[in-house]
Amino acid sequence: MAGIPVYSGSREHSLANYYYQALYIPSEGVISKVYFVGDVTAKEILDWYKSSLAGYEVVAEYGITTISTPEGSLEWGAILFKKDREGVGIWALSGTPTKVDGKQGAVYCVVVGDIEKLISEKTITTPTSEGLPYSDQVSGEEPIQRYPGSVMFSYRRE
């Protein structure tokens, strides 16, 4: 991970496996490190990396999205950069579930590897606040009125 800066005040941390699966963070054929930093948000981490990775081109950006979990709300976002064949991905999370030792902050994962390992079909279709992956979109009339931005898991017409 030489040459990839680390946000000031960060310390190495861990990230539960289900986050790798849910957010499509690549784990095979890449090098990754997870960090925690207090008193910042996922957005601040991502903005900092956008301004700090000189010479890298942004190839994909996933805006901040809020997820509700049993532990509380979680905000996450990601940015993928490339320089020649090298890819760098930053996935950042903040919110109640990311408290460490009682301190609020952000957990972020820096992934480095071949750009093809970072950009996969699953990564490209990661849900964002702008919409669902194509495979999850449907057309037609809504069966019931819903809160804007909510997702209906099932509906049974009686």
What is the tally of helical segments? 4
Number of separate domains: 1
The CATH first-level class comes to Alpha Beta
Report strand %.
25-35%
CATH architecture: 3-Layer(aba) Sandwich
Strand-and-helix sequence, N→C?
EHEHEEEEHH
Describe what you observe in this structure.
The protein has four helices and six strands, in the order βαβαββββαα. It is about 15% helix and about 35% strand. A six-stranded antiparallel β-sheet has the order 1-2-6-5-4-3. With about 160 residues, it is of the alpha+beta class. The longest helix has 11 residues, at about 40-50.
Write the layout of secondary structure elements.
Layout: E1 11-12, H1 17-22, E2 31-38, H2 42-52, E3 57-69, E4 72-83, E5 86-95, E6 105-114, H3 115-118, H4 121-124
Antiparallel strand pairs: 1-2, 2-6, 3-4, 4-5, 5-6
Features:
4 helices, Protein Transport Mog1p, Chain A, globular, alpha+beta, 158 residues, 6 strands, 6-stranded antiparallel beta sheet, 16% helix
Brief write-up:
The chain is an alpha+beta fold and 158 residues long.
